[in-house]
Amino acid sequence: MEHILIADAGSTKVDWAAVETTGKVALRFSTPGLNALMASQSDVEKALAGVRETLGSEIRPVRTYYYGAGCATPEICDKMRSSLLANLGGEEAFVTTDLLGAARATLGKRKGIACILGTGSNSCFYDGKEIVTNVPSLGFILGDEGSGAALGKRLVSDAFKGHLPEAVKEKFLDAYQLTLGEILDKIYRQPSPNRFLASLVPFLKENIWNPYVYSLVLKEFTQFFRRNVSRYKGVHSLPISVTGSLATNFENILREAAASQGFSLSVITATPLDGLITFHTEPADE
User: Torsions phi, psi of 237, nearest 5?
Assistant: First the structure.
């Protein structure tokens, strides 16, 4: 039986599915995050060697569809394509941005606005086939509004600048057992500061009952719609989809933020993988 391999690769984790051409999922698993822009070649090789081991001898994909964070330029995509073919085999490997994966998964062949809210954030206008327009996310330093990294950054900043209620600040520091010096070291000197900041989001989820925490999350999501989604021409007449762990963990607040900017969300899903499986196995239009 022939298989295709589909990957939704984020900075925090990569979701994989080996799928028979009939649409039946033969194997589904996750590996640590991989950002093609930031990862070294040895990081990529090591990650793909682990994938090959997980697939075993029974599954040899004929085609791989890789939708990845950091697949931002043709050069990066070409390098990832070569690595996929060298390590996993097969006849073809298609490499493109995770944003196109989100669009295909949530909108299928309909045009609309597709958004990602995970460790980072992004959005695009999708015409049913390809991304036509993208308001650049600019990363967690210059942008990434509404992302896990942005929420974590706001939490740390508010805690140490005296905006976070004292009782919540004490609970936060006790939960993570980190000093200000250790936090600054993780952000400014250690690798993957965006992942570290996003790792603080569970604290926000656990304390969302607190009015200040609720407002913090609402404001950050509102910024995402105001500074990104609102920039697309004709957006109010288009379906808007959002995928990512933040979208489902804070769905009610996300919808409230969207409504405050005049938007209604059509699809909210934790991961694009199910939608991508459907997209790549459904019969082609006649």
Answer: -105, 10
Question: Residue 89 corresponds to which tokens in the numbers above?
Answer: 């085999």
Range of the domain at 31: 3-102+273-281
- Pairing outcome for strands 131-133 and 25-32: unpaired
Closest-CA residue to 196 (of 178, 212, 210): 178
Residue pair 231/206 in contact (Cβ under 8 Å)? The answer is no
Chunked mean pLDDT (size 10), the chain, 286 residues: 88 88 86 82 88 86 89 88 89 91 93 92 93 86 89 95 93 91 91 89 96 96 95 92 93 95 92 91 64
The total number of structural domains in the chain stands at: 1
CATH code of the domain containing 40: 3.30.420.40
**Model's pTM, two decimal places?**
0.85
Ramachandran area for residue 162 (φ above 0: left; ψ -120 to 50: alpha; else beta): left
Amino acid, res. 268? I
DSSP 26: E
